[in-house]
Every structure is written in structure tokens, then in C-alpha cells.
């Protein structure tokens, strides 16, 4: 199952920040008590990453080993982190550190009593170097359990500069302008948007950006916690707004049927592949990696983005996702595990992966120069400057039965809505019924 977090494909992510002089070599950043202080110890780490992402994270772990002497062993869990980690705990083989990809899973782990609070040193780094929202998403009942090391910017609309130039349109500032620009692109011979409707998670991201902008952050937070019902008028309004796009067969490559038969990589291919069918594709910063790695596009020239535009009179949304490092109570090496998180909280650690590519950090002390291209720097800058207005992916905050299961819950109901967007109110009622059951369970 391909989630829309930061673990999608080789070029997956991008988020932010600003590296201080100490991370650039001006002075050593200590981790766990100084150079080689942990020689002879081994830390086991589990996370969803594989392929290029796993290799790049290993570079970060290797930097920690170089600094402290501690060895590391990384195990890829695949997408079902909760099940894999739970079975390891039951078998007496719990990893020391887990990279958790969803807020909902972090809360689940904490509520099961699996997690150790993070050290005072890590908490001080988070307080000083991260926007408060990242501490909020890493905390449960006021205790900090998770350090957000890697993030994704999910409010980016990617486009072919050639397609927009040929249509004579510029990147829009509002949602209405985006639909109007899309119509002009469509009139020029290409569909406006490629929509990955086969992957339900992309549709939740569409909804979340529209809802955050149109309804505002307070209602977004309430809906994410299911303190606001999905039958609320604000949800119906957002679905109505989204339905205007979904029902316009000229705007979507292949129409609704074509969208429902297009997965995420396919949606990128329809814009940046050898035979373009559309001028724009909405998804997170990780689109850039796919365009570059799979289709040879030069990011910034052949592929670019504009921020997801403001809807109605709202502010432009900034929706994010990310992977948080947590320390397990049943891990065998608590001290070294806490030292690893203290290191991951430094700009030095983030710089290692930023230089390798396919990465964004919520650490605002990371120097933007650490990123390898102007587009990634722009994405990172957008994320960092959003500060506390960043909101974590709503479906990643929900129970998996509602927000993260293929063929069920929000994913399926929004696919049904894409197929027939004529009844926003009815769709809202179905979403509420599914959410109520999932949150109760």
C-alpha cells in the first residue's frame, strides 16, 4: 500500500529549514556525551523506508556512528509499522528506535504504553529549533514522545512550464484562478489536471487542502480529532468545491473514469512522461523526485510547482506529513537510543540527508543551502515559514480503518465521490458514519 507520507518513492520528500554554523563544521555537535562515548553499543532501528530512502537514512546513522562509536542496525518494516513493531515487542525483540510515519500510530503506541518520553536535551532542541506545531504532533497528553525528523510538503501543485507557457497562463494565486487557468490549458489541447484517483490517499490530500483553506485551521483540527462531525456544513462546502473540479471532464485527464484508473506514479507520468496528457498534477513535494528519477526532468526547468492556492477567502493551506523517531520502552539500549534522537534533533543530522536529496526537515536551523536545488529550497522555505500554521495530514491523524485503509473508509468514499460528485451532502453523511465507527473502535 502506498501511503502519502514521506515514504513514497525514491525522490520522496521535501520540507525545510536552516542549518547553523555548528552543523556546517563550525564546531562539533555532540550526541550522547561526546565523541566515541558509545563505542561497543548497538542500536536497533525500525522504519518504513526502503530503497533509496533507506540508503540515505543509513548515511545519517553512519554519521551518528562516526560521532559516538555506536553501531546501528536498520530494519525496514514495510507500511504496516504498527503490526510489525507489535509482534517484535511480543516476541521480546523490540527495536530501540522506531521511525513512525503517522500521528495516529504515534498516539496508538503511546496509549499502549510502548514509548519512553524523549530526553530533556531532545526536548530543548525541539523547543528551540522547531515550530511548536511539531512538538504538538509529537506529544501525547503533554509528554513528548516523537521527534519529527523527516517531513513532506503536501500543498504543492506541480506543472509543466511548457504546458502553461503554451496555454499563455501563469501559476494561479487562488483556487478559482487555478480552475480558470486549467480551462485555458484544456482549450490548448492538454487536460488541466492528472488525478491519481486509483490511490484513495491522493483524494484525501485534495480534500484536506481545500478544507484547511476554506474552513480554517480551527475546524480542521476539530474534524481531524472527530470533535466536529463530517456532516458539518463546512465539510459539505469543501466537497462541493472539490466536486466542481471532479465533475468537469475537460479538466481531468481521462475524465472521472480515467482518474479512477490512474495511480500516483501514473498521475506524474501523465504530466512529465514521454506522452503528456495533462499540464498539472497535485501532490506533495515528492512529485519532484518521480519527475526527476523516472522521467529525467530537470526540477526547476522541466518541472516546477506553485503553492496550493487559497480557496474562497481563506489562507493558502500548508498540509504536511512526516516520520517521527520514538524510543521503545522494551528496547534493550535506552541510553544509546536517546542519544540517537538527540543527534537526529540537530541540523547536522538533517544536513546529511538534505545533501543526499529526497528530504525535508522541520528543523528551522538547517541551512537551506544544504538542499541540492532551488525548488527543494523553495519548498523547504515555504514549510518552515508556515510555522504554526502547518497542519498534519488529517487522514494520518485518524484511525487507520477510516483514514488509511485501501478500499475502505475515507479512501473509498472519496473515490466514490470522484466517480459521482453530485451529492456532497450524502457523501458527508457516509464519511461521518465511517468515521464514527472507526473512532469508536
Automatic annotation (TrEMBL):
InterPro entries named among the record's database cross-references: Bact_solute-bd_prot1 (IPR050490), SBP (IPR006059)
Source species: Streptomyces chartreusis NRRL 3882
Domain of life: Bacteria
Organism phylogeny: Bacteria, Bacillati, Actinomycetota, Actinomycetes, Kitasatosporales
Protein family (similarity comment): Belongs to the bacterial solute-binding protein 1 family.
UniProt keyword terms in alphabetical order: Signal, Transport
Protein name as it appears in the record: Multiple sugar-binding protein
Record's signal peptide: 1-23
Amino acid at each position: 500500500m502506498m501511503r502519502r507520507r514521506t515514504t513514497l518513492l525514491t525522490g520522496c520528500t521535501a520540507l525545510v529549514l536552516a542549518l547553523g554554523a555548528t552543523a556546517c563544521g563550525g564546531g562539533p555537535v555532540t550526541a550522547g556525551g561526546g565523541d566515541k562515548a558509545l563505542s561497543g553499543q548497538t542500536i536497533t532501528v525500525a522504519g518504513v523506508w526502503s530503497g533509496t530512502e533507506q540508503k540515505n537514512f543509513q548515511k545519517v546513522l553512519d554519521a551518528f556512528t562516526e560521532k559516538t562509536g555506536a553501531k546501528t542496525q536498520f530494519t525496514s518494516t514495510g507500511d504496516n509499522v504498527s503490526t510489525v513493531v507489535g509482534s517484535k515487542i511480543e516476541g521480546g525483540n523490540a527495536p530501540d528506535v522506531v521511525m513512525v510515519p503517522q500521528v495516529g500510530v504515534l498516539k496508538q503506541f503511546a496509549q499502549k504504553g510502548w514509548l519512553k518520553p524523549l530526553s530533556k536535551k531532545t526536548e530543548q532542541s525541539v523547543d528551540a529549533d522547531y515550530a511548536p506545531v511539531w512538538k504538538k504532533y509529537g506529544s501525547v497528553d503533554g509528554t513528548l514522545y516523537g521527534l519529527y525528523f523527516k517531513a513532506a510538503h503536501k500543498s504543492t501543485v506541480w506543472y509543466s512550464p511548457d504546458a502553461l507557457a503554451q496555454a499563455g497562463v501563469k501559476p494561479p494565486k487562488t483556487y478559482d484562478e487555478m480552475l480558470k487557468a486549467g480551462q485555458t490549458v484544456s482549450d490548448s489541447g492538454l487536460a488541466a489536471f492528472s488525478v491519481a484517483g486509483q490511490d484513495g490517499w491522493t483524494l484525501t490530500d485534495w480534500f484536506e487542502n481545500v478544507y484547511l483553506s476554506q474552513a480554517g485551521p480551527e475546524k480542521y483540527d476539530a474534524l481531524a480529532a472527530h470533535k466536529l462531525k463530517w456532516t458539518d456544513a463546512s465539510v459539505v462546502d469543501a466537497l462541493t468545491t472539490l466536486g466542481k473540479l471532479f465533475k468537469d471532464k475537460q479538466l481531468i485527464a481521462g475524465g472521472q473514469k480515467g482518474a479512477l484508473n490512474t495511480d500516483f506514479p501514473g498521475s506524474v507520468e501523465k504530466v512529465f512522461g514521454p506522452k503528456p496528457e495533462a499540464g498539472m498534477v497535485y501532490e506533495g513535494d515528492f512529485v519532484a523526485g518521480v519527475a526527476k528519477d523516472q522521467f529525467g526532468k530537470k526540477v526547476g526547468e522541466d518541472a516546477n510547482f506553485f503553492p496550493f492556492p487559497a480557496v474562497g477567502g481563506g489562507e493558502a493551506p500548508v498540509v504536511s506529513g512526516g516520520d517521527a523517531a520514538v524510543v521503545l520502552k522494551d528496547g534493550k539500549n535506552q541510553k544509546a537510543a536517546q542519544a540517537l534522537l538527540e543527534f537526529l534533533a540537530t541540523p547536522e543530522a538533517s544536513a546529511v540527508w538534505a545533501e543526499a536529496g529526497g528530504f525535508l526537515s522541520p528543523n528551522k536551523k538547517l541551512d537551506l543551502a544544504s538542499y541540492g536545488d532551488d525548488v527543494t529550497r523553495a519548498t523547504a522555505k515555504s514549510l518552515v515559514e508556515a510555522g504554526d500554521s502547518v497542519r498534519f495530514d488529517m487522514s494520518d491523524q485518524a484511525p487507520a480503518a477510516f483514514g488509511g485503509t485501501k478500499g475502505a473508509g475515507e479512501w473509498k468514499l472519496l473515490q466514490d465521490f470522484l466517480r459521482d460528485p453530485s451529492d456532497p451532502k450524502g457523501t458527508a453523511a457516509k464519511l461521518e458514519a465511517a468515521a464514527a465507527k472507526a473512532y469508536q473502535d
